[in-house]
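Aim 2, interim progress. The first record below pairs a target sequence with its structure tokens.
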Amino acid sequence: LEEPVSGRTGPAVLRGFALFLLLAGWWLPPLWTGADTARPTTALLVDRSLSMSLPASVGGMSRADSAALVIGEIDPSITMWFGDSVRSAAGDVSEGGSERADDLGSSDAASRVVPALEAARAEGADHVVLVTDGELDDREEARPVARRLGLTVREERVAERPARLAIRAVDAPTAVEVGDTIRLVVEAAAPGASI
């Protein structure tokens, strides 16, 4: 015990509290109980741009129909549509909620994924499954944003990747004069096809 001296009460109380925390701290309950473990971790982001109404492949089903098949295999914590803006999907799209998976084709003129990534992270998502045809307006901007937000992104493409086109041959006249109309014959090729 310390001898009572004026002006020493404050430091004595602080020392006693520090000693109490040091000795009893091992038995005190934790400050965080883990009550928010139900927080969503996986976000499903579904492209709702105009291009989703196009065929997924030559003569095949639409990209929206392909997306509906992919969505049925995913069990997300949260689901959002994106295009011109970001909207939370009403109901469970895999179970045919009020916005059904087969109604994916919309009138959104753009396909911007950066706002969707930011909205998913704000909802607590750590992992994102991106269902798109691959025609994103801000793909290059999205990569550093996903890294900055700490999101892992898996892209599920519902359209065939466009074939690379190559010029196989060009047939042109060897000599022309000013004012002449010339005829060029270009032979282009894509993998497995000739155009």
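The second target in this work package is listed in the same format:
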Amino acid sequence: ALDSSGGSGPPDEQPGETLAGRCLGFLEKNVTFVNPAPAVSAALRFLNALNLPKIDENEDLQVSLVLHLCFMLERNICYKKLVYDGEADYIAQNRELYGLLRGGMPILEENFDLTINDAEICYIIQTINKS
């Protein structure tokens, strides 16, 4: 499981350098409408629920995805909709991962009272596939 506690890590780790801490520091400077702490917490719960070794074993990917998910929440709060070219084909090519991500979306949607569109999910798939 990913560490969402923000607790102390190994002795050589700087304070605040947990995964959650790294993301929070960045988000506090870069988002306006979403509250970073609950957004990071929800993003980590979402990633844990996916239970994908590719994500669980890659901290850089975890950071990318947590930041991506938090910016996605920010966009949705501001009613900024992304468009993904070739969305239907991309979903068809990545049906299994799409189903997994779509299935986990209520963790984010219900916490923030919004609906995540398929274009956003396509960008998440792209982030995972590029890693």
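Residues 59-77 form the longest helix (19 residues). This observation will shape the mutagenesis plan for the next reporting period.
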